[in-house]
Write a structure and sequence with these properties.
Elements lengths: L1 E14 L2 E7 L2 E4 L4 E14 L5 E11 L9 E7 L8 E14 L3 E9 L2 E12 L6
């Protein structure tokens, strides 16, 4: 398995196998804490190779700097079957999140797992905006 793309963005779509991304980011500027981010998506483009076939499980979770989850993780069943005439299989995965809560400023990460084994992390920094002068 090879993760070609792993990104946190405002939105993503899959158009007949093409992954479309809008507004990739790695920092959230919060006017106050705790912060609630209204909506975002984790977009993945994954290539499976011979030997990767079978019923797999893809996990996505937001974790804090201590490695603790800040929400309940998402587990997706991923059946992988390469066609007889294919050397690889590429699939796009888009997981949408709403109302993500961040208790404090600091470093977070999106943990990407395959069959409960960490494959990739997407870093995310949450910063509090300084008060605006009157």
């Amino acid at each position: 398995m090879n993760i070609q793309v792993a990104v946190l963005c405002d939105a993503a779509t899959d158009d007949n196998g093409k992954l479309n991304l809008l507004g990739a980011f790695d920092t959230i500027y919060a006017p106050q804490l705790p912060a609630v981010h209204p909506q975002c998506a984790v977009a993945l483009r994954v290539t499976f190779m011979p030997g990767d076939e079978g019923d797999r499980k893809l996990g996505v979770n937001f974790i804090n700097a201590d490695g603790r989850p800040i929400m309940q993780g998402i587990d997706l069943p991923v059946p992988v079957a390469l066609p007889d005439d294919a050397h690889f299989l590429t699939r796009n995965f888009i997981v949408n999140f709403q109302q993500l809560k961040f208790a404090e400023a600091g470093l977070y990460s999106v943990d990407i797992r395959l069959d409960n084994e960490s494959q990739q992390g997407i870093p995310l920094l949450v910063k509090q905006q300084p008060p605006q002068p009157a």
